[in-house]
Amino acid sequence: MQSCKENRKGSAYIFVIGAISVLSILAIFFFKANTSRRYSTRMMSDEKKAEALAESAVDLVVGYIGEKMNDPTDPDYYLPFRFPCQLTQPTMGDNLGKNIPLDISYYEDIESFPQLVGGVSALSPIQYIIDELGGNDNVNLKVTISVPYAEAFSSKNPNYEVVGISEKSVTAGGASAEFLDSRSKLVAGGSDGPLSNLNSDWKLDFKLPNHTYEMKHKVYLPEAPGFAIKKDDVKITRLPPYDTSLIVLGELWIKVKAFGKTFVDITPADDNGSMTVDVMEYIKEYIGLEDDVTLLTMEALRDQAMEGDHNSDTLAWNASNLITEISDELDKMPGPIKAKIKSDPFGDGPQVVEKAGVLQIKAEVEYWPNGKKGKKIVKTLVAKRPFKVSDIQPPAPEYSFFVANSNLLFEGDDNPMGLSLGKAINWSPLYSVASVAIHNLPGAEYENCTGLSGSDGGAGKKAQVPGMVRINSRQEMKVNTYLGTLEEPYLTEFNALVHKPAMPNYKVLPTFRWNDSPTPNSQYEVHFPVIIETSMNDPWPCTGFRNLLSFLSVCNALEGPCQLFGNCFMEFPLGMCVEAPLKQKYGSMVFQVKPIGKKADPYDFSEIRITYKNKERKYGIEGKPGYSSISDWSPDRHECMPANVYSLLQYAKKATHFYRSEEDFWNDKSRFKDDVFDCTGVTHIKGNLNITDKLTVKGQGILVVKDNIFAKKDVIRDPSEPDTVFTLMARSGYLHVSGACNVIEASCYSNVAPMIAKTSKFEINGNLVVNEFDRGDVDYLEVNYNSAACRVTPLSIMRDVGKFEPKRYIVSIADNWTSYKFEKISSE
After folding, report:
1. pTM, whole model, 2 decimals?
2. Alpha-carbon gap, residue 381 to 347, rounded angstroms
3. SS3 breakdown of the chain: % helix, strand, coil, rounded to 5?
4. pLDDT tens digits along 548-600
5. Listed residue (177, 331, 162) closest to 795, CA to CA
6. How far is CA 734 from the centre of its chain?
7. Do the beta carbons of residue 493 and residue 569 sit within 8 Å?
């Protein structure tokens, strides 16, 4: 029994010693592993030693390339991945969804990547292996890198086009935006004049009739509760200037009597004399303004809505500062890329930079185990690993707001809600009185437009310019101008009718005609924002000027406005026009008056009649129409689609990070450091995404969600990372905003109209691109365009060469080899 125990005890000792030995061997192995076969090669055959060196070289080089391929300062590995290649077919689609082979002649004709030989810095970490094999006298090592195959990411719709990539965007609207179209237009840089030409100095004054009348009228004056006119012939004329106050000149002999006693006796110096009456003082008394208060002007409205000087003579409406930056970047574009850009990169077989490819690394080893006079061993290892070059430019980066309204953005089966697009959009909300405001000025201030000439801040990659607006449709659309409210005067779109005093197209000074004068004509027509949905067939009656306020009782069109030109219709887009077959509705009124005075309060018993009808004109600033024909911005033309919008399949293919569920996304802690999401690259989530906690983002990249995004908390850019460019995209579904989500700082894409389930302020700081838009689903929305955060660089927004900007692309290499084999062994 004792012997059995002793045997067991001995066996245990042997087992422990064996385990310690194994652990020691493993420890030594792992300790030595970081020297990559330094000691193991001593025990190998000569051929295995040569193979081990080739394997080490291949592993080292692929890691080295991975460190350098996204570093713009690297001279060897940054540019070759970004070489443009030509499509071997005219579109970006294939009916089976197969990727499209690329013409890779640029990789075949020249040595795109540097050839590495023993002794170069890239191979220095494995020099010790060469030394163990006898040094450079006995070993020759050469590594060559190539791209033997590349293909473009295809849609499964054979006719799919990606604007800005395979199809050039349609020409920009407006002189100050035409520089976007081509390099040739950078030199001149179109201009729409200084800001002072765009913001007028109109005053909201009143006019009495524009003619001289010689007839008897009873005229009311506040000091004179009742009065008599000595002469039957009274002349009432307007006395200029009308821009500061309204002066009426009348030849009046006035005597007020009551119970046989004279209370007021106003008599001219002589029978042919006259007196001046400042009617505006009485109008002030009606509406309760203090004596030192001037009547509300458009400048006053601007000051309430925005800060700073909004009527500057020095701020010219052309992007000369930004153009300077683009020109500098174009001049500095690397020669190896610039030399490969064709004169027509959007012609047959368009050039693309984004690609999937094969990276081939070939390591050739020549080894003389016994010196150069002895046997030579030759080993050649050819290893292949997939790589991707993915575009991270946001959709339509030069636009504040873009509505594609098109079936062309569908692949066929990625329209889960069965949208039928292309028709005219109804811009009237169904129930809401909340507003939609597109702020084309960064931060809604002229002073923030550092990319315009005359502005502060100068050029630079962060130069800010106004955004543009595009709404596609097959038919003309209509949107109401909005009167505004006393509580929120910046909502008014009266300024839509008040541009440029020299242009007589709109008449905004209320002009009263006598009730007994001839039939109304355009001379007395006054233009207002829409206040009644349909025209009035009969004049609206009113007694007394004070009671004009009761006219609001018939207003039924004071719905939540759609302000495509921002607050007070003053945040003009680049190009000065809305690219859309869109008309603005406005009201036309004619005021008829018959001045009547009474002895008792109310003294003013004047009879007033108002005739109202709605009219339409092209939306925007007079003289700068947004379209010349309905087909200008057709949803059936590929070139009218937003730039850089890829199909759902293409996003899945080009993803650098792919998650099968949002749970997998949130659990990937490698992407979230210090609670900040690094968005670099293209992230694809299959399904929905729920944002229930504040999401802070840094880097440059796109987060593509296959279906819907439900944002219940804010999404913000990391303030410590000023170069962040982030796109949040619901590619097939919609963006739903609710709860405590008050701001999303991103370039946003929503395939279906965003669902804004809020009546309090919600802001997108970036831009908004949608396919479908339904005003009935948007209760409240403010888009504050952020030009610098919607593009990778200024050069990247150019419509002819922007796609060749190398900084638009992120390169990623797969984790595994697809091929890893030695060529036939040979020795001499």
Report:
1. 0.85
2. 40
3. 25, 30, 50
4. 777 878 888 777 889 999 988 889 999 999 999 999 999 998 888 776 655 55
5. 331
6. 17
7. yes
CA dist 537 → 519, 540, 614 (Å): 15, 9, 11
Banded pLDDT at 278 (limits 50, 70, 90):
low
Q: How far apart are CA 253 and CA 251, in angstroms?
A: 7
| Cβ contact 684:659 at 8 Å | yes
* Nearest Cα to Cα of residue 395 among 470, 312, 327: 470
- Report the distance separating Cα 401 and Cα 580, nearest Å: 12
Whether residue 282 contacts residue 222, with contact meaning beta carbons closer than 8 Å, is answered with yes
Q: Provide the pLDDT confidence category of residue 820 given band limits of 50, 70 and 90.
A: very high
Measured CA to CA in angstroms, residue 172 lies from 573, 577, 799 at distances of 12, 10, 9
Whether residue 192 contacts residue 576, with contact meaning beta carbons closer than 8 Å, is answered with: yes
Name residue 826's beta-bridge partners: 378
Token pair 């990789």 in the structure block, residue: 107
What percentage of residues in the chain have a pLDDT greater than 90?
Answer: 54
The pair of structure tokens assigned to 357 is 């490819």
* Contact present, 189 and 319 (Cβ < 8 Å): yes
Stated length of the chain: 828
Over the range 803-812, which residues count as b (16 or more CB within 10 Å of their CB) and which as e? bbbbbbbbbb
Query: Has residue 501 got a pLDDT over 50?
Result: no
Per-residue pLDDT reduced to its tens digit, 17-39: 444 444 444 444 344 444 444 44
Angle among Cα 174, 176, 181 to the nearest 5 degrees reads 75
Alpha-carbon span 143 to 159, nearest angstrom: 42
- Counting beta carbons within 10 angstroms of the beta carbon of residue 503, is it exposed (0 to 12), middle (13 to 18) or buried (19 or more)? exposed
Give the separation between CA 86 and CA 106, rounded to whole angstroms.
Answer: 10
> What's the token pair of residue 607?
């009879």
Residue 780 CB coordination number (10 Å) = 20
Q: What is the pLDDT of residues 320-364, one digit of tens each?
A: 999 999 999 999 999 999 999 999 999 889 999 999 999 999 999
